[in-house]
Amino acid sequence: ARTFPTSSAAAAAGYSTTVKMARSALDEVTDTGAFDRSPSTFRSSVSSDASARFPAVPGRYHLYVSYACPWASRCLAFLKLKGLDHAIGVTAVKPIFERTKETDDHLGWIFPATADEEPGAEPDPFNGAKSVRELYEIASTNYAGKPTVPVLWDKQLKTVVNNESSEIIRMLNTEFNDIAGNPGLDLYPVHLRASIDEINELVYDAINNGVYKCGFAKKQGPYDEAVTRLYEALDKCEQILGKQRYICGNQLTEADIRLFVTLIRFDEFLSSTSSKIGEVCTTSLMHVYAVHFKCNKKLLREHPNLFNYTKDIYQIPGISSTVNMEHIRKHYYGSHPSINPYRIIPVGPNIDYNAPNDRERFGS
Ligand SMILES: N[C@@H](CCC(=O)N[C@@H](CS)C(=O)NCC(=O)O)C(=O)O
């Protein structure tokens, strides 16, 4: 049996020891049939202030991720761009959900038992946890919410500092500058904040979360609404990127990273999102092939500006190392046995995102 420090660590970090939330995305569909994402639970901040509860010191924090997950990947991108890999370690889980406990049927993120088991994934180096769920239970006894990645983990207090990627990326951008290899890079600069905020709102709702709203809708109305908004937003971004190199001007910002993580998964993700629709809709006898056509109005590679832009961002030093297409494919095609019982991975478009692109026409 494993034993963990529990309530004392959670109490020290100021968290309630019982958190009740949705256990999986399937619980996050409202009576109207629309997908409604639950808010993240752990919302503390690491601070550059040495007297803070979570001071930005090297070696104290660890990022638990899945390479399949777009939200975790945006944190990985910030870690690389800011030159923080020496200060904050990373451990990736296995790409395919497994039972997290023998005593119930929850499926979730699992660490491999050894470093050889799954290229890219590693055992938990600090807590010997079998699952991400166990990490949450160390931080908060009886945690009943969704055990999601990313997790920004405090090795000293043995707790989750924050599990909301939009907040983690802001901390990585500003709070670690004393120890960052690239402190001068500001991905949320004051003069562009209004524009970044506006784009983020559109991109989060219609694109990042929009693909999930398409995928998890249980009724036609919410699906129609989500898919219309998704393609309107993609068209808007396509137009903007016909005039400038990056989404908020001619400078890379967090809005680009937030958009990129969905775009890079897009042509793979269309059918993966559909797999989840199929799982939700097993009782309505929906056929998986029909489901696969639900989100295919247009592929990424049919939007020339968005497609070249995705290659451009991918080719920024450090970014390609945050994209593990193998984990992305394995996760989406392997984590839903009711839809894809033999876990066969479709051949996929195998796009070369390192291929030349036309973005330098806007200057470098
Ligand atoms: N709001 C969170 C969302 C993270 C999230 O939804 N992660 C997914 C993976 S893409 C997850 O871990 N899901 C676990 C599950 O569905 O059980 C963030 O942006 O950090």
SSE layout and pairings?
Elements: H1 7-12, E1 61-65, H2 70-81, E2 89-92, E3 98-99, E4 107-108, H3 132-139, E5 151-154, E6 159-162, H4 165-174, H5 193-208, H6 210-216, H7 220-240, H8 254-280, H9 288-292, H10 304-314, H11 325-334
Parallel strand pairs: 1-2
Antiparallel strand pairs: 1-5, 3-4, 5-6
Protein name: GST C-terminal domain-containing protein
Organism: Urochloa decumbens
Active site: 69, 212
Features:
single chain; 6 strands; two-stranded antiparallel sheet; 364 residues; globular; binds glutathione; 11 helices; four-stranded mixed sheet; mainly alpha; disordered N terminus
Bound molecules: glutathione
Indicate the mean pLDDT.
84
Gross morphology: globular
Per DSSP E runs of 2 or more residues, the count of β-strands stands at 6
Q: Uncertain runs with pLDDT below 50, 5 residues or more?
A: 1-21, 271-293
For the termini, the CA-CA separation is 56 Å
Strand content: 5-15%
CA radius of gyration is 20 Å
Helix/strand order, N-terminal first: HEHEEEHEEHHHHHHHH
Question: Strand order within the widest sheet?
Answer: 2-1-5-6
> What structural class should be given to the helix and strand makeup?
mainly alpha
Helix share, percent: 25-40%
Q: Tell me the number of helical segments per DSSP (H or I, 4 or more residues long).
A: 11
Biggest pleated sheet: 4 strands, mixed
Binding site for glutathione: 109, 146-149, 164-165
Site (Lowers pKa of active site Cys): 289, 332
Organism: Urochloa decumbens
Keywords: Signal
